[in-house]
Amino acid sequence: MDTRNPSAPPRAQSRIAGKSHAHRSTQEPHARPGGVIHDNTRHTTRFTVIGNHLAQHPELSGLAIGLAVYIQSLPTGARVDIKTLAARFPEGPTRIAAALRELEAHGYLRRTRERTPGGHIVTRTVSCNQPGHHGTGAAADTPSRSTRRPAPAERPPRKLLPTVPRPAHTSPTLLRTATDLLVGLRRHDPRLLLSATDTEHLAPGVAAWLERDLAPSAVQHALTADLPPEDLRRPAALLAHRLAAQLPPPPPFRVPAPPPDVRHPLQNCEGCDRAFRSPGPGRCRDCRPDLLEAA
After folding, report:
1. What range does the domain containing 109 cover?
2. pTM of the entire structure?
3. Whose CB among 47, 70, 72, 147 lies 3.0–4.6 Å from 43's, allowing a Cys bridge?
4. What is the SS3 assignment for 91?
């Protein structure tokens, strides 16, 4: 008896090239109904590696993340000033500038002003694909390295520094004081010699302490007291941990004191020669006809 299964395929189906990733992603055991399904194709040319710490950053805005990805994809020497970026994207200069400040605050951009040999002032922008790390700057432009993942023996990974608290209201003066405090720590303990990148990462944490009505000497004592006797392999990580773990609470709210009473000097009345208090010469209350009429 010839019985056919209507649900069985008439012949074995071959896997279609280029669909293997999408097929596997629908079979992922942890996929949730209605969640994203990735249809991935492996890039072999013209691609940029972006870390999830940037793509999924919990504090950066979407515009800031997009600008960081765009800037990291550009070759060295490309213009990334506000005017150029505003001409490239629909957002205006104000939003572009705010997004760049976000990236600078979180370490994805470093902008410094330098004087050229011709006497002009230019802004040099450094894009950091891993805040807290120092690269050579030229490795990203070397074709032999940009298309392959470096082996661990070529570039040993460096652990990220712990997150430090940030001040509620930043100001150049506050950050300058915080930076000077960090630079001076090496005078108290030579093991606390910090790099420029580490100092830039730690400065907002010190500023968060200073805005809590703490003197710089008190913050310095909290960072340098009871250090371990052995060598410090990562002094910046130790300082970052102390800044976060020992952050004092904000000072209690104090009602502003009322302004002091104004006490004018004594004057001699020009009418009766009696002494009275007034900011300047004139007549006392009893000798002023305008006051008498008002009464």
Report:
1. 52-131
2. 0.39
3. 47
4. coil
Find the Cα–Cα–Cα–Cα dihedral 185, 134, 210, 123, rounded to 10°. Answer: 120
Structure tokens at 251: 């000072």
Q: Between the CA of residue 263 and those of 184, 267, 276, 279, what are the distances in Å?
A: 47, 12, 11, 9
| Mean pLDDT score of the chain | 80
- Rounded Cα distance between 185 and 193, Å, is 7
Q: Looking at the domain assignment, is residue 110 inside a domain?
A: yes
Tokens representing 61? 């805005």
Query: Greatest CA span in the chain, whole angstroms?
Result: 138
Distance CA 171, CA 166 (A): 12
Q: Which two tokens stand for residue 206?
A: 């010190």
d(CA 197, CA 49): 22
Is-contact 199 183, C-beta < 8 A? yes
Q: pLDDT grade, residue 45 (50/70/90)?
A: confident
Total number of domains in the chain: 3
